[in-house]
UniProtKB/TrEMBL annotation, chains A, B:
Keywords: DNA-binding, Transcription, Transcription regulation. Residues 11-109 form the HTH hxlR-type domain. The keyword DNA-binding applies. This is Helix-turn-helix domain-containing protein. It comes from Nonomuraea maheshkhaliensis. SUPFAM superfamilies: Winged helix' DNA-binding domain (SSF46785). It holds the Pfam family HxlR.
Amino acid sequence: MDTGDVFDPNCPTRVVLDRIGDKWSALVLLCLVGGPMRFTKLRERIGGVTPKVLTQTLRAMEQDGLVTREVFAEVPPRVEYALTDLGHSLHGPMAAVATWAEQNVGQILRSREMHS
Amino acid sequence: MDTGDVFDPNCPTRVVLDRIGDKWSALVLLCLVGGPMRFTKLRERIGGVTPKVLTQTLRAMEQDGLVTREVFAEVPPRVEYALTDLGHSLHGPMAAVATWAEQNVGQILRSREMHS
DNA sequence: CCGTATCCCTCAGGATACTG
DNA sequence: CAGTATCCTGAGGGATACGG
């Protein structure tokens, strides 16, 4: 696989950025790093996400092999989402971005204000 | 530093992800890591970007203090874009994501195919 | 060469309501 | 509890043409 074609729309970085760059995926990832979590709990921890969109996000992440979905045949129903190994391995790079963000967001916001 | 407000819409990670998660910013960053570059050269290296959108992207990055824009009063006109120190410092985390992407995109695409 | 000016259009995401 | 089912809005981004 060629690793240099960052300008190809199908390049690895594009694919990954399209996933973690959406509005909720990164948040789901960070929620699940601590361990499996069920649907409603995810909704609570991630403020402002509607069930439809949360489902969409989880389905997409499942399709990409980042999370698993396990249904327990109980009453009331219980569905647990968990990170796969692949999902867990993504946490490292994400944490790097998060750390940079925390350290530099102040400068960005100040710069944004100045140019307004 | 508080690392717990990841669920606030104004949280650092959100702000940064909204920037580098858009369609062209990451590509511009990767272009400029090698040194300053002028507008048309950027257009050429980044395939498929229209001048309007490239300008939008560059203006946004300039606003956020990631790039500088220097106009040379020449004929024909010349405009060079370069990364600021802040912009350069973002390359580390981005490279971490890119490396992960290159190593794991195969698995993602395979998983995507299986679930289709 | 380096953009702006328009127009257009898709689609991610939100609001709301309902169900197995 | 864990989702679907609809409907809708807006912002990001593309096509094309023109201007300093």
